[in-house]
UniProtKB/TrEMBL annotation:
<dbReference type="GO" id="GO:0000976">
    <property type="term" value="F:transcription cis-regulatory region binding"/>
</dbReference>
<dbReference type="GO" id="GO:0003700">
    <property type="term" value="F:DNA-binding transcription factor activity"/>
</dbReference>
<dbReference type="InterPro" id="IPR046347">
    <property type="entry name" value="bZIP_sf"/>
</dbReference>
<keyword id="KW-0238">DNA-binding</keyword>
<keyword id="KW-0539">Nucleus</keyword>
<keyword id="KW-0804">Transcription</keyword>
<dbReference type="Pfam" id="PF00170">
    <property type="entry name" value="bZIP_1"/>
</dbReference>
<keyword id="KW-0175">Coiled coil</keyword>
<dbReference type="InterPro" id="IPR045314">
    <property type="entry name" value="bZIP_plant_GBF1"/>
</dbReference>
<protein>
    <recommendedName>
        <fullName>BZIP domain-containing protein</fullName>
    </recommendedName>
</protein>
<keyword id="KW-0805">Transcription regulation</keyword>
<dbReference type="GO" id="GO:0005634">
    <property type="term" value="C:nucleus"/>
</dbReference>
<dbReference type="GO" id="GO:0046982">
    <property type="term" value="F:protein heterodimerization activity"/>
</dbReference>
<dbReference type="InterPro" id="IPR004827">
    <property type="entry name" value="bZIP"/>
</dbReference>
<feature type="coiled-coil region">
    <location>
        <begin position="19"/>
        <end position="74"/>
    </location>
</feature>
<dbReference type="GO" id="GO:0045893">
    <property type="term" value="P:positive regulation of DNA-templated transcription"/>
</dbReference>
<feature type="domain" description="BZIP">
    <location>
        <begin position="1"/>
        <end position="56"/>
    </location>
</feature>
Length: 106
């Protein structure tokens, strides 16, 4: 009878020890899970920031592409009209060479 009691006590101790180990493992896994959730949230925030920055850069690229296209059209227009006398009329403006000096009565 003493051996049965001793065996039951050892069995309870073994179960208690196993339960403590499971609880410790559960707490460790909860901590790891929390750290993973924190990392996921941080990566998501970084992703959203990069996505917003990417949108801004795409908009800037579109704007700069339009400006480049306009500049190229102006250059092409000037190259086509390089021999045109219409544009040469702006090279000499008569009022630049003649200055009119007037005096006001005091």
């Amino acid at each position: 009878m003493i051996s049965n009691r001793e065996s039951a006590r050892r069995s309870r101790m073994k179960k208690h020890k196993y339960l403590d180990e499971l609880l410790a493992q559960m707490n460790l896994l909860k901590e790891e899970n929390n750290q993973i959730v924190i990392n996921i949230n941080m990566v998501n925030q970084l992703y959203l920031n990069m996505e917003a920055e990417n949108s801004v850069l795409k908009a800037q690229m579109v704007e700069l592409s339009h400006r480049l296209q306009s500049a190229e059209e102006i250059i092409n227009c000037n190259n086509v009209n390089a021999g045109d006398d219409f544009l040469k009329t702006w090279d000499f403006l008569p009022w630049e060479s003649e200055r009119i000096i007037t005096t006001y009565p005091v």
